[in-house]
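User: My collaborator sent over this chain with a note saying "see what the structure looks like." That's all I know about it. Can you take a look?
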Amino acid sequence: MAMADDVTRVLKPPSLENLICVSLLLFRSWQKLNASIILKLILVFCWYLMHLLVCLVHIMASLKKWLLSYIISFGLLSKYQNLQLDMLNCLAVVVDSEEATDTRKIKHLLCWLLTMDIKYITLYDMQGLLKKTLGNDLMSLTKTSTRSCSVDDVKTMASVFQMEKMTVEILSLSDGKEGIAKAASFLCSKYMKDDSVSCNKSEPAFTESDVANALNAIGYCGPEPQLLLIYGPARCHLGFPPWRLTYTEIVHMGSLRFMNYGAILREIYQFSKKHQNYGT
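Assistant: Without extra context I'll predict from the sequence alone. Here is the result:
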């Protein structure tokens, strides 16, 4: 009899109150689940919307620069025709090694900079391809461009090419490494010599001026460029000698394939209008 009561109690259907409680719990769980899903969808939508807005702003800014560059190239803006180059004594151009093989573009770039009356140009690529290709072809460049660029009397000395109206210096990553190694060796030998004479065993304290004097003594202290233009995918100087970038403004110009005369003119003009505070 007791077993029959237990079976009856187990098989007894749940009461209405229990059903309502279970239903409420399920409904609340469903509401929380839906709320979390909706919140995630809203966050994802806001994230993609923000990225879309940033991309649109970037595209609009690029289009504005592109249109302005072509307008400048056609000479429609007179303020870009007369450049004030008092602050620009040296211009550096860093080219990605994959694009440095296009010597035709490099020659066009040199010709454009010559027409802008740039006196000193430093070309740089990491692997030294410009030294191998452009260094040998610089004489032919002056011969083919004499009429349009008025370049005569080329004298080739190592990686510095002195012309009548412009000096071109070609550097690579090995120049920076070699310069640092020779400067360190020079300072070490000088310190050891002074230490042996004075019998002083104190720790060496090298200052920035000591390193600059050492680089100057071994012939690796060239002019510091005031403006550095970078052509390639990377937005960095790609190992350009850092001791020559004390107060240099670095500008990324994009790919060398899309090099534009107006873009170069625009950046030089904007640089000429800036005021620099060097401090003490």
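A starting point for your reply to your collaborator: The chain has two domains: 16-71, 84-272.
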